[in-house]
Amino acid sequence: MANLIIRPSWYITENRVTPERLFLNRRKFLRHLGVAGAGAMSLAAVGSSAAEAGGPKTVKPFAGGKSIPAPRHPDFSPDWKLSDEEVTATYNNFYEFTLQKDVHRYVGKFTTDPWSIDIGGLCEKPMTVTPQELVTEFGLEERVYRFRCVEAWAMIVPWTGFQFSKLIEKAKPKPEAKFIRMLTASKPEQMPGMARVPDYPWPYFEGLRMDEAMHPLTLVATGIYGKPLAKQYGAPIRLVVPWKYGYKSIKSIVKIEFTDRQPKTFWETLQPEEYPFESNVDPKVPHPRWSQATHRKIDTNARERTLPLNGYADYVGQLYKRG
Ligand SMILES: Nc1nc2c(c(=O)[nH]1)N[C@H]1C(S)=C(S)[C@@H](COP(=O)(O)O)O[C@H]1N2
Ligand SMILES: [Mo]
């Protein structure tokens, strides 16, 4: 067994996902994605769903969706069956619009263009950027991730985006910066849910430890199912942290701040025992009001066992080893 390579359970070897001829284009892909020199762990190979439809395509800037579908990253794209797209687009959590799941009915007035994101706090290069600028600079890739809400439902979806680490490195955080705080847009006149729960501490805010934010799995998404994010998913730009409960994946981000202290979060402010800062998916730790041992797939209603760290334990487990 000594030479058996242990892979994360969601890992799939490249020859299972990449048609033979794409191996030849590998170098080209790596070059135009700007990932050629990057770490072996996450960027061993880059295939392309676009390429399967007729040769490699350049990653174009964010422009009403012309940039996507983006090349699929096989290291992050196991052959799991995707959740039904119509179900995931009509079963969302976005409390700024409604406390129910039919968020798509309430997003009509929400404008996501123009959009800008303020990056500041403890960093050398504070800046204001647009989603378009970020996508132009970092490129886009597609990744298939599990997603697990604290309410015990789950889905598997293909996100389009870039690693959060790229954006963090661009801002050059100072050594004292140990955490990142993020903020959702506050547009009460366009977000009918805000007025319905005036006691909530709007705007929605979340946070991560710096090492969590820098982890290769942590994605900034601008698209889903090969299309720009529909508004109910958190257009134009949101976070995806697949080993944590869904509420950590903050939507429609307008601000990113580097801090030296663990920031408060929206849900922690409301109910600290139920929604602590870390909020890693853990089937053994029940929510005070329900079990987290299993979840329901939102499209098929299938019950499945929930995995530690949502199935990403081999990958991110080392972040939580006490030393
Ligand atoms: N700004 C904001 N971000 C948010 C939420 C929210 O209400 N407001 N809900 C969170 C929760 S609880 C979940 S489960 C996910 C849902 O993402 P989805 O609708 O794309 O599936 O978004 C998270 N991000
Ligand atoms: Mo959630």
Protein model, in words:
The chain has 323 residues and is an alpha+beta fold. The protein has a single domain, classed as Sulfite Oxidase, Chain A, domain 2 (Alpha-Beta Complex), CATH 3.90.420. The protein is built from 10 helices and 12 strands. The strands form 2 sheets. Strands 3, 4, 7, 8, 9, 11 and 12 form a 7-stranded mixed β-sheet that branches. Strands 2-1-10-5-6 form a 5-stranded mixed β-sheet. β11 and β12 form a beta hairpin. The ligand Nc1nc2c(c(=O)[nH]1)N[C@H]1C(S)=C(S)[C@@H](COP(=O)(O)O)O[C@H]1N2 binds next to loops.
What's the CATH topology label? Sulfite Oxidase, Chain A, domain 2
User: SS-based structural class?
Assistant: alpha+beta
**From the 3D coordinates, which CATH architecture would you assign?**
Alpha-Beta Complex
Biggest sheet layout: 7 strands, mixed
Reading the helices and strands in chain order gives HHHHEEHEEHEHEHEEEEHEEH
- Which molecules are bound in this entry? ligand MTE, molybdenum atom
What integer is the average pLDDT? 83
- Total DSSP helices: 10
Q: Beta-strand level of the residues, as a percent range?
A: 15-25%
Oligomer kind: single chain
Distance between the termini: 28 Å
